[in-house]
Design a protein that fits this description.
TIM Barrel, alpha/beta
Length: 249
C-alpha cells in the first residue's frame, strides 16, 4: 500500500475537555469562526495555546449562507448577509475570517452547506459568483455539501470553483486532486468507536488516493479514539503488519 504522502489525522472540534489530547493528533478542524470570526488578537492567543506542530483548518462563517437574526451584532445591513451575496458586509466578514485563519497558520477553510442549499440554477450561480469574488489568500476550501446533490453535480461544482470535495471513504468514491479531505461523520460507527474493518477501509482509501496530502477528520462520538486507532492502523499496514487488533482504547 502506498502511504508515501502527507497524511494528517485529527478531529472536528474538541472531543474531550482536556486539551492535552492535541498532542495526539495532526490536525484540528476549528469552528471558532463559524459565527463571527474572532479578531487577530484572539487568534494569536488561540495559536499560542496549541502545539506548534498541530495543523489547523477553519470553518467558514454560516452568515455567508443565512441571514443573522436580530440578536446577532454584525456590522452593516442584516439583509446584506446570507444567500451567498457579494456585498461590502460579506466581503468584510470574509476578510475577517481569512485574517483569523492566517493568524493561526491554518492550511485550509471548510465550507459546510446545509440541506436547503440545493443544486438549483439560482443557488449554483450565486455560490459560484461568491466564491470567485472572495480572496482565498492561497488557502484550500474543503466543501461538505448536504441536500439533494447528485455525485456528478457535486464533483462538477467542486472542479468549476476550485474546491476540495469532502468524502467519507466508508460510503463515497474518492475525489481526485492534489489534496483529499476525508470526513467521517457520527453515523459512521453507529455511536461507538470504529472497529478494525472500518479503519482498514479508511486506511486503504488513503493508500489508493492519488492526492499528495490527505486529511482524515473524525466527527464521531469517539473521535479521539478513532483518530489514534487510524494512525495505528496505517502504521501497521505501512510496515506490513497485521497484528493491530489491540488498539489503545
Amino acid at each position: 500500500m502506498n502511504f508515501e504522502k502527507n497524511i494528517l489525522i485529527g478531529t472536528v472540534g474538541y472531543p474531550v475537555r482536556n486539551k492535552k489530547f492535541l498532542s495526539d493528533i495532526d490536525v484540528l478542524e476549528m469552528d471558532e469562526a463559524k459565527h463571527i470570526p474572532p479578531g487577530k488578537k484572539a487568534a494569536k492567543h488561540i495559536k499560542e495555546s496549541l502545539p506548534q506542530n498541530l495543523a489547523t483548518i477553519v470553518t467558514l462563517s454560516k452568515y455567508f449562507i443565512k441571514r443573522p437574526d436580530s440578536k446577532i451584532s454584525l456590522k452593516g445591513d442584516a439583509n446584506a448577509y446570507g444567500d451567498f451575496q457579494v456585498t461590502d458586509e460579506t466581503t468584510k466578514l470574509w476578510k475577517r475570517g481569512i485574517d483569523f485563519a492566517l493568524e493561526l497558520n491554518a492550511t485550509a477553510l471548510v465550507l459546510n452547506t446545509p440541506s436547503h442549499i440545493t443544486p438549483s440554477y439560482r443557488t449554483v450561480t450565486s455560490m459560484s459568483s461568491f466564491l470567485k469574488n472572495m480572496d482565498r489568500n492561497g488557502l484550500d476550501i474543503f466543501w461538505e455539501p448536504h441536500g439533494p446533490w447528485e455525485r456528478s453535480q457535486m464533483e462538477q461544482f467542486a472542479r468549476d470553483n476550485n474546491l476540495v470535495l469532502a468524502v467519507d471513504p466508508l460510503r463515497d468514491p474518492l475525489f481526485a486532486g492534489e489534496t483529499a479531505y476525508f470526513r467521517m461523520g457520527a453515523f459512521a460507527a453507529g455511536g461507538s468507536r470504529m472497529g478494525v474493518y472500518e479503519l482498514e477501509q479508511i486506511a486503504e482509501s488513503v493508500a489508493m488516493s492519488n492526492s499528495k496530502t490527505v486529511y482524515c477528520l473524525f466527527d464521531t462520538q469517539r473521535a479521539l479514539d478513532d483518530a489514534k486507532n487510524l494512525k495505528d492502523t496505517i502504521l501497521s499496514l505501512a510496515n506490513g503488519e497485521d497484528d493491530y487488533d489491540e488498539f489503545d482504547y
